[in-house]
Amino acid sequence: MRITTTSRYGVRAIFDVAYPGGGRPTEIKDISRRQKISQRYLEQIFNKLLKEGLLKSRRGPRGGYMLSRDPAEISVGDVITAAQGPVVPVSCLSDDESKRQFCDFIFI
């Protein structure tokens, strides 16, 4: 199983939102500074996490990102799946045809 940089950063960012946030919105610029991750890259990751329902956002002067549910209900697997897609032990088992093309030898 391969864990991407996006997934690793996603886990770090979710933890950062959960830990100091205390239920209050956390600004992405603060997460970027604390985690030493590009703000633009975090925005891309957070869009995926928002789409999967792990985060919610609030606009405005007291806005930012917060967890959509209790931290105990969010697993590392949820974050990885949201960030990089389904986790499969080998790429041959992926639904993505382009990743399966070199795996025909396994099933011979």
Structural features, described:
The chain has one domain: Orthogonal Bundle (Arc Repressor Mutant, subunit A), CATH 1.10.10.10. Helices cover 47% and strands 7% of the residues. It has five helices and two strands, in the order αααββαα. The protein has a two-stranded antiparallel ribbon. The two termini are 22 Å apart. The relative contact order is 0.17. The model has no long low-confidence stretch (mean pLDDT 83).
From the structure above, extract its key features.
108 residues, mainly alpha, Arc Repressor Mutant, subunit A, two-stranded antiparallel ribbon, 5 helices
> How are the strands ordered across the major sheet?
1-2
Helix content: 40-55%
Q: How would you describe the shape?
A: globular
According to CATH, what is the topology?
Arc Repressor Mutant, subunit A
Distance linking N and C termini: 22 Å
What is the assigned CATH homologous superfamily? Answer: Winged helix-like DNA-binding domain superfamily/Winged helix DNA-binding domain
CATH level-1 class: Mainly Alpha
Average residue-wise pLDDT: 83
**Poorly predicted parts:** none
DSSP helical segment count: 5
Structural class, from helix and strand content?
mainly alpha
Second-tier CATH architecture? Orthogonal Bundle
What's the total count of β strands? Answer: 2
Q: Give Rg in angstroms.
A: 16 Å
Estimate the strand proportion.
5-15%
Main sheet attributes: strand count, strand direction, barrel closure: 2 strands, antiparallel
Number of domains: 1
Write the H/E string, N to C. HHHEEHH
Topology of helices and strands:
Blueprint: H1 5-21, H2 28-35, H3 39-51, E1 55-58, E2 64-67, H4 76-84, H5 97-100
Antiparallel strand pairs: 1-2
Helix pairs in contact: 1-2, 1-3, 1-4
